[in-house]
Design brief:
Layout: H1 30-42, E1 50-53, E2 58-61, E3 66-69, H2 71-81, E4 90-96, E5 108-114, H3 129-149, E6 155-167, E7 172-181, E8 188-196, E9 201-209, H4 213-226, E10 227-229, H5 250-255, H6 257-262, H7 287-308
Antiparallel strand pairs: 1-2, 2-10, 3-4, 4-5, 5-9, 6-7, 7-8, 8-9
Length: 319
């Protein structure tokens, strides 16, 4: 199966947030940094039980083994403690009950929502994921060259850590990618869960390292059960002819098209967790290349639509 609309350039990249040579040095010594980080960590307000997301669109029902941090506390962890540039668009974070943001064993799942319409899943069984992976790897390789020029570590998409799997009964999909940054011997785990709803997609991205793959995979069934859309917002509640339909399908969720189309660039996170070290990972998006690709895609779509218009048809809308 071909993927002409999104796969020749990887649309979403996760990158190591390495300080540039011209960055100003910090005025705080390591001990002061650690003290400040512990103060922020101790102020986090962990929640349990049932959590309502986005005014009732979705709900989290937390078992005793997990807790929740709201959007503000999630920003504290991602930005102030883990060094990411922004946490805009986050709905919060699910963490294990023993979570410590300063500990090397920590991992978390960041939530966001792409209100981009109903994603049709009729292409799920037709996707050649091996071919899609090759196209994604080519895109990462091309993008990595520019990253190096910009002073960041090279990035490589090693392969699937867990191949994409779609549950047609629950309309939930999950997969994992293995990434390599620079010369680091420790590879990064990018574990993804997508839940399809009436008006968009719930995005769950795990922040973890490759050695934690089995741990995250073991937690996936619980995560799939504890987070879901509420009545009226579920996939089955879609109203044909009334509700908005997304302009992409299942394959685009894996390739990253959802991030480009739905503006989720600020809501996707990945990190390497190193023992006894602060996490200094962030997110780098190739906005210039993405915009050019999207303009090209829309241009081809408009040209095809114009060619199909009959004399009695209205002209296609301008973009």
């Amino acid at each position: 199966m071909k993927f002409p609309r999104f796969t020749f350039v990887l649309l979403v990249l996760f990158a190591l947030s390495i300080a540039r040579a011209d960055s100003a040095p910090s005025t705080l010594d390591p001990a002061a940094k650690l003290a400040a980080a512990r103060k922020l960590s101790s102020a986090l307000k962990y929640q349990q039980g049932e959590i309502t997301l986005r005014g009732g669109v979705a709900k989290i029902t937390l078992p005793a083994s997990f807790r929740y941090l709201d959007a503000d506390d999630t920003s504290t962890v991602l930005v102030k403690l883990w060094g990411n540039p922004s946490a805009a668009g986050s709905l919060g974070m699910i963490v294990p009950a023993e979570f410590d943001p300063l500990a090397g064993r920590s991992w978390a799942v960041v939530l966001s929502f792409a209100e981009d319409g109903y994603v049709k899943d009729n292409d799920a069984e037709k996707i050649n994921y091996d071919k899609l992976l090759k196209q994604m790897q080519d895109g990462v390789r091309e993008a990595s060259q520019q990253r190096v020029k910009d002073g960041y570590a090279a990035i490589e998409l090693v392969g699937w850590a867990a191949p994409p799997r779609y549950d047609a009964a629950t309309h939930k999909m999950y997969w994992a990618k293995e990434l390599k940054f620079g010369d680091s011997p420790n590879h990064t785990l990018n574990y993804n869960i997508r839940m399809l709803g009436r008006r968009g997609v719930l995005v769950l991205n795990a922040v973890a390292s490759m050695p934690q793959l089995k741990q995250v995979e073991a937690a996936t069934p619980a995560l799939l059960q504890m987070v879901d859309f509420q009545e009226g917002h579920r996939y089955a509640d879609f109203t044909e002819g009334t509700d908005k339909v997304a302009t992409y399908g299942i394959a685009a969720l894996v390739a990253g098209g959802i991030a480009m189309k739905a503006g989720l660039l600020k809501g996707l996170w990945i990190a390497i967790i190193a023992a006894k070290k602060f996490i200094i990972l962030g997110f780098i998006a190739l906005l210039g290349g993405i915009k050019k690709l999207w303009a090209s895609i829309r241009g081809r779509q408009n040209a095809a639509a114009a060619a199909a218009v009959t004399p009695n048809d209205p002209a296609p809308p301008a973009v």
